[in-house]
Each structure stands twice: as structure tokens, then as C-alpha cells.
Specification:
single chain; about 600 residues; alpha/beta; Rossmann fold; Alpha-Beta Plaits; 3 domains; 11 helices; 13 strands; elongated; binds adenosine-5'-triphosphate; nucleotide-binding; P-loop_NTPase; transport
Length: about 600
């Protein structure tokens, strides 16, 4: 259940990689209806922050929510968040259309959605081309198309303009503005303010993992005073006259000119005239946001010669983003026209339009009712979600696996059986399947433990004995580098299953040689089933309750009733002081199940 707000909250977020403090006590909000730029120089901590937001990396401290929920607790993530962290990993020989069809199948959206999003991002005419031959900019578009498949409410894009040509950047700008104008939320990162300046309304600037500015871009602009440079006949006389007029921020320059802050051209002209000083030239220098960006972020890998100071200080404090009101409804705003280069001939409709709601998958997002079990806690514990690609919805998996995208048999790399939740990546890629993003928590499964807090566990989670490889106070054993959240850890050795993954006969869709060590009878995403013949013998820590239609299966207690949506500054739902009833204690999690997949 989530509050449907489209709001992103990052609160006191901290991430240390050993001695490297990648993110330090970062807090900001991103509101729907606007495009927020997440800016900082290389190594500032942007990607790490986004990875924590998407449940790919466990924070050392603090928390993040989308729609009032940690990512791993979103019931239908791909309908809520579309994310692109890197536009890589496409199967090189798979066509763009087939790439998207694979995701359509797993998400349970109609196949024609693949063509819709191809057209939307201007790749309509390239749908039959193998993604391996795509340029970087085309890969960016394909990654964006993948993120849009679920018609998400929130878009999170890491350096989306990377590789785009000027026309592509202009198109992306129009697209994102229209997307936000339809009442949705857009968060884009960049290390170049100039690249996104015309796209964003709000800006969060970080450096060294810390917030330097958070607020409307206009306020940042206004905070910068213009500087007036004059060339007087007598610089000393003018400086004296200006100081007598209480304009004290006056700097004589080596070339005889005078730089003045805090006065208009007209004021300076009047004072000069009164003092009898001729002016041979007057030049007003408008505040340069790029310059300010350097000021705010200088010091972190700053190159020599980076301009320093001179334009006044940025506004004090960190302004809170302003909530938008009177926003347009989704679908109201056209997204503009993609560049001609990738336009699908003969397809005037379908793009230039906001994503349309479509029956079956485009219906308004279901809002759970307080006091009712969250989706997936019904009598049927079917439809557990496979590991989730970036921007994927936690849609029930198709029985028998995803349909073949235009090929006989199963799509390459896909198992012809329900995917194991949190199981090995499917699409035939060693390590990570293309564009897969985190889906740590399985819909309908026991809530995954929230990210750890330093020294104290997240509220609502009892202190559990530390697991091997687990961060102190953190979530269950972290994965290996290259692991996708929701997926298995990357094997340490080729051919060796990662810890917690038993070597088993190869299963279709699973990386060769290893398979999740799932217990017999265990439901995907659920704790081990009670032993046969022992009805009512629930897993440890779960209350035995008679099964009712529409209630959790036998042996499962009622899920906790949803408390009110968290307020800013408050921890998200489920982070209560007490361990919620029926939530699986951390040490009971099965390997590869639930849990945050990123390397903590
Ligand atoms: N898995 C990791 N292990 C160790 N250090 C890491 C890891 N991931 C990130 N870091 C470090 O954390 C810091 C922040 O990195 P991050 O990638 O978040 O920065 P960024 O702002 O996205 O940079 P860029 O603009 O270059 O992409 C860097 O010092 C980086 O080296």
C-alpha cells in the first residue's frame, strides 16, 4: 500500500563504503508535478543515493520512500517507479522490440505497449534492429522506453542526457516537462547543471555526499546578484563616491575598471554623474548558474581554474520543495515530438501523446484500504514476482513463463516456469539480466526488512543475530558486486553458486549450474511451507491461524494493518518500534529471498 502521492523522500540518508563516505546525512523531498535535478560533481554520491532509493543498495543510515513506502514495500513498483540507472546490458542480438516484449510479458502488459513506448521515445523505426548495434543515445532511449512500459507515476533517471545529441536532449527536455506537467514526478541526476538547467524546476545540489542546496531553481537564480562592471575616467573618485552612497561592495580591477555588486546600472550612472566621473563603458554581468554550481560544489575533484566566489552567496538554508497544486491529470499533456531520425513512419498517433491508460494494466493504481491485507496476502499466494527489471511492475508472473516475443519456444533466457522470486536473473545473461533493477521485496511475501540503521535496527525490527556478510545493524547478507536486487548474488567463482544458493540441476532461466535453495513446498517470496501433514504448524515466528478465503494462507498470521502514511521527517510505514506481527524475522529469510540485493 502506498499513499499515491508520487512524492520521493530522502531522509538522513548515509552510505559508507568502508572508509568512503559516499552519502552523508542527505535529506530532500521531490514533489510531483515538477522536474527535479539531482546535481553534483563526479563522485558526489548521486548514483549511490538513487540506488538506495531503488532498493539496490542498503543505506548505512537513514531511509528513503516513494509514495510513502520504501521501494521494497511498493506493491506494484513498475506502476509506481520507472528507473534508468545505466543504459547498458541489453542483449546484443535481441531487437529493441523483442527486448521490450520480454518485459511486457513479465509485467503482464499487452505486447503493443512495446511499440507504444518505442514510438514514444522516437525509436519506432528502429524496433527491428538489434540493440547491440545501437548508439549510446539510442540505448538511452531504449532504457527510457523500458522504464515507461509500466506507465509509472515516478521517473528516476541517472544522467539521462548522456549520449544524446542536441536534438535528443531537446526532445528529452520536452518529454520530461510534459511528463511532470501531467502530475507525475521526475528526478534526474546530472553532473552538468547546464545540461539540465532548462529542464528542471527544482534542484538538489550535493557535494561530498552532502546537500548544498535544495529548492526551486528560480530562487537559486534570484539569490545571485548581477555584477556591474564600469570603466570610469577616474576609478578612485568613483569608488569614493560609491562608498559615500553606501554602496560598499566595490572592487577596482587591474585594468582600471570597477566591479560593483548591489547596485543597478542606473544607480551607478547617477552617482558617477553627480561625482563628475565620466563612464566610458558599463556592462551588467548576469548571475551565472554554472558559476554558482561550481561555487557550491567546488573542492570535490575540482579542476584548477574553476571559478571561485565573486557572485555572492547562495541562499541560506535548504528551501523545501514547493508542493504543486492544480496539476494536470496524466494524459493531458502531449509529450512533444521525438526527433525525426527515429520516427516510425506512418504512425502519427501513439506518440506526441501522453501515455494512455489502457485496460488491464493502465487502470488507476489500486490503493489498498487501511485495515485490509495488502495485495498478495489473499488465500492464493500465486503470482509472486520474478526479479524485477528497472521500471517493472510487480505483476503476477505469467503461468508458464513469459510468452515468446515473436519466437517459437520461450524467449531467450526465460524460464518456462514461474520465476523464482529473488531468484537468478532470467534473460540469459550471466550475472545480471539487461536493465534489471531492484525488486527486493516480493509482492505478497513477507515484508522485507527495511534498510538498516547504524547501531540501531530500523524501527520496528528487532535486533537479530548478524548474518554472515551482513552489515552490522543492516539488512540480511549483502550480495556480491554485480548482483541485481531481487536477484541472487553474483557467483564469486565461475561455476560456483553464490553463498546461499545451492548447486542444483540447471533450471530454465537460471544461470547455469545454480539455483535458489528454495525449500520444498515454499511459495515464492514466502517463508518455507509448513511440513506436510502438519497443518497449522507455521514457520517460526508466525501465528497459526485458520485460513479463510481472502486471508493469508494457513500458517500465516494476518499482515499488519497499515498505519497512516508517514509524514516528512517520520519513518516510513512499518518501521515501528515493535516488530510487526507476522513479519519474518531477518534470520528466517531464505537465501535470495526478499532482502536488498545490492552490495551493502
Ligand atoms: N560499490 C562501491 N564501493 C566502494 N565505493 C563506492 C561504491 N559505489 C560508489 N562508491 C564511491 O562513493 C562515492 C560516490 O559515488 P557515486 O557513484 O554515488 O557518485 P556520483 O555522484 O554518481 O558520481 P558520477 O557523477 O561520477 O557518476 C565515490 O567516491 C565512489 O567511488
Amino acid at each position: 500500500m502506498h499513499d499515491g502521492s508520487g512524492r520521493i523522500v530522502v531522509q538522513n540518508l548515509t552510505k559508507n563504503f568502508g572508509q568512503v563516505a559516499a552519502v552523508q546525512n542527505l535529506s530532500f523531498h521531490v514533489e510531483p508535478g515538477s522536474v527535479t535535478g539531482f546535481l553534483g560533481p563526479n563522485g558526489a554520491g548521486k548514483t549511490t543515493t538513487l540506488r538506495m532509493l531503488l532498493g539496490l543498495v542498503a543505506p548505512t543510515a537513514g531511509w528513503t520512500t516513494i509514495n510513502g513506502q520504501p521501494f521494497h514495500r511498493l506493491e506494484n513498483p513498475a506502476r509506481v517507479v520507472g528507473a534508468v540507472l545505466e543504459a547498458q546490458g541489453f542483449h546484443p542480438s535481441r531487437t529493441a522490440r523483442d527486448h521490450l516484449r520480454v518485459y511486457c510479458a513479465a509485467m503482464g502488459v499487452p505486447e503493443q505497449r512495446a511499440d507504444e513506448v518505442l514510438n514514444l521515445v522516437g525509436l519506432g523505426s528502429a524496433g527491428n534492429r538489434a540493440a547491440g548495434g545501437f548508439s549510446l543515445g539510442m540505448k538511452q532511449r531504449l532504457a527510457l522506453a523500458t522504464a515507461l512500459l509500466g506507465d509509472p507515476q515516478v521517473l528516476v533517471l541517472d544522467e539521462p542526457a548522456n549520449g544524446l545529441d542536441p536534438e535528443g536532449i531537446a526532445w528529452l527536455r520536452t518529454f520530461l516537462k510534459a511528463f511532470a506537467a501531467s502530475g507525475r514526478t521526475v528526478l534526474i541526476s546530472s553532473h552538468l547543471l547546464a545540461e539540465v538547467e532548462q529542464t528542471i524546476d527544482h534542484v538538489v545540489i550535493i557535494s561530498h555526499g552532502q546537500t548544498r542546496y535544495n529548492g526551486p531553481l528560480d530562487e537559486l537564480r534570484k539569490s545571485q546578484q548581477s555584477r556591474v562592471i564600469v570603466q570610469p575616467a577616474d576609478a578612485n573618485k568613483l569608488v569614493t563616491a560609491l562608498q559615500e552612497a553606501e554602496i560598499s561592495n566595490v572592487t577596482p580591477l587591474p585594468d582600471g575598471k570597477v566591479a560593483i555588486l548591489g547596485a543597478t546600472v542606473q544607480q551607478i550612472g547617477d552617482i558617477a554623474a553627480k561625482a563628475g566621473v565620466a563612464l566610458y563603458g558599463v556592462q551588467e554581468e548576469k548571475a551565472d548558474l554554472e558559476h554558482l554550481f561550481f561555487q557550491l560544489t567546488s573542492g570535490q575533484y575540482a579542476a584548477p581554474g574553476v571559478p571561485q566566489g565573486g557572485y555572492g552567496t547562495p541562499p541560506g538554508g535548504y528551501a523545501q520543495p514547493v508542493a504543486q497544486s492544480g496539476q494536470a491529470q496524466p494524459g493531458q499533456q502531449p509529450y512533444g515530438t521525438p526527433p525525426q531520425g527515429y520516427q516510425q513512419p506512418g504512425q502519427p498517433g501513439g506518440w506526441g501523446q501522453a501515455p494512455q491508460q489502457q485496460g488491464g494494466w493502465g487502470a488507476p493504481q489500486q490503493q489498498g484500504q487501511p485495515g485490509t491485507p495488502p495485495e498478495g496476502w489473499g488465500a492464493q499466494q500465486q503470482g509472486q514476482q520474478a526479479g524485477t527489471p528497472e521500471g517493472w511492475a510487480a505483476q503476477p508472473h505469467q503461468p508458464g513463463g513469459p510468452p515468446a516475443p515473436g519466437q517459437a519456444g520461450t524467449p531467450e533466457g526465460w524460464a518456462a516456469q514461474p520465476h523464482q522470486p529473488g531468484g537468478p536473473p532470467a534473460p540469459g545473461q550471466p550475472g545480471t539480466p539487461e536493465s534489471w533493477a531492484a525488486q527486493p521485496h516480493q509482492a505478497g511475501g513477507p515484508p522485507a526488512p527495511p534498510h538498516g540503521q547504524p547501531s540501531t535496527p530500523p524501527e520496528g525490527w528487532a535486533v537479530q543475530p548478524q548474518q554472515p556478510g551482513q552489515q552490522p545493524g543492516g539488512p540480511p547478507a549483502p550480495g556480491q558486486p554485480g548482483q541485481q536486487a531481487g536477484g541472487p548474488p553474483a557467483p564469486a567463482q565461475p561455476g560456483t553458486p553464490p553463498e546461499g544458493w545451492a548447486t542444483q540441476p540447471h533450471q530454465p532461466g537460471a544461470p547455469e549450474g545454480w539455483a535458489p535453495a528454495q525449500q520444498p513446498g515454499q511459495q515464492p517470496g514466502m517463508p518455507p511451507a509448513p511440513p506436510q501433514g502438519q497443518p497449522g504448524n507455521p514457520p517460526d515466528g508466525r501465528a497459526a491461524q485458520p485460513q479463510q478465503p481472502g486471508t493469508p494462507p494457513e500458517g500465516w498470521g494476518q499482515p499488519p494493518a497499515a498505519p497512516p502514511a508517514p509524514q516528512p521527517g517520520q519513518p516510513p510505514e512499518g518501521w515501528n518500534q515493535q516488530q510487526p506481527p507476522n513479519q519474518q524475522p531477518q534470520q528466517e529469510q531464505q537465501p535470495g529471498q526478499g532482502g536488498v540485493g545490492g552490495n551493502a
